[in-house]
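Onboarding guide, step 5: your first structure request.
Type a short instruction followed by the sequence, for example:

Predict the 3D structure of this protein.
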Amino acid sequence: MQVKKKEIIKQEKGAVTALVLFTVLIFITILGGSYFVLTSLQKSQLKSDLRIQEIYEQEVYQIDEIYQEVEARLGIPELWKKASDITQWYSYGEAKINEPKLVGNMTPIVYSNEQTGNKWANAITKDGSMFVWIPRYAYKITEGYQKNQAGTIEIKFIDINNNCLDGTNELIEVDPSKITYTTDSSGNQVQDQWLVHPAFTKIAENGGGFSDSQDSNKELSGLWVGKFETTGTVDKVTVKPGEETIVQVTVNEAYQAGKKATFGEKVNLQNHMLKNSEWGAIVYLAHSQYGVNGQEIEAQTVTSSIAGGVTNVETIYEDESYKKHSTTYNAYGVYDLNGGANEYVASYLYNEQSQYLNRYGGEAEGDIFGANVEEQSTSTAYKTIYKDSGSTDNSFTNVEKANYILNSTIKGDAMYETSNNGGYNSTGAWFLSATYFPYITAPFIARGGRYNENSGKSSTFFYNSYYGSKFPEHGFRMCLAI
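The system replies with structure tokens like these:
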């Protein structure tokens, strides 16, 4: 009986063991199946995730391609991009300015890489030409008036009603002839009143003449000026860096090219060849705290026929020495104002006896000189006339000086106010640069000084007189008065 009992217990243990093993096998099978199912699901999910990522990356790439195509259609220049945040588009120090005015397909742009300093507003037209905004302002010359040593120009940005945008209540004078000066303890003349820069006014005789293109009763809130000297051809002008500038043109060819330019736009840009007063508007702002703050804009010495001075566009914006060719010492400024080509401006000294005015200024209606005495002797929005003193002095240096004095009421053009006599003087203007006021046999004006100027140092305050004929180093600059 005892033996049977042991056998029964042994059999029961064996049955239990078999049951346990069976249960374990089933559990392992279930686990294995679950693992297989989970692994399959994970693999499927992974494949799904990878496919989603692939589709996403493909779509992002396509979006980038589409964006680049849109940018290309907008003509966005190399190293620039469309301003995505209009509030971060520009900065003129901490000052409030008149909002840059855009028309047609003009697009606000910002530089791709971070830049320090003032950031003047930049925009492109449909063809990719580049322009920089010069906001309406009033100015005072508080040091260096009629000296050849660079002085101080103070700026107040103003609205079209001549209210100061900084909230101060200053009296702003519009008539340059009413400006008075006080002699300080050092014997220097200091400008007493704030003067609206004449280029922004409706008074053609003072260098203005344009009004808001949508309202003839409004004066200009600012000007768009060519970022570089003019490129392209006289039939289709552009303003693009690293390209050959237009040279070897008469002053009238430049004038006509400026008026017929479209820059791919179908709206009225009030485009024109830069006038002498508009040159002054650029360099006064550049000299102020909102530009290089009294420092000298360095001369472009490499070549006279490439916008920006070099064909490598990145060098123009990134090389430290090239940045100093800009009015802001960075990519946001206006270039080629010192050195480069000698830039003809749409301004001349009128003397009906001058053989060069009709020869190179044109005698047809609408030419810079014009078809009759009234047209030839009258300032317009497109050109400024300087008066001839009628001096018969045999020394052309003295004749230049007499004309310089006669035209002393014309302000803001960076001539009379920022030089010491206007006669033939290789060190007569700010930064000891050259001055040659126009006279009967050289009635047209060029600015900036060419890169290989032999008759005196160039600077943004340099001015010279010429026949108006074709020179291999003479170009011009564009302006939009919208």
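Each response can be followed by summary notes, for example: Confidence is low (pLDDT under 50) at residues 1-22, 27-31, 34-39, 63-69.
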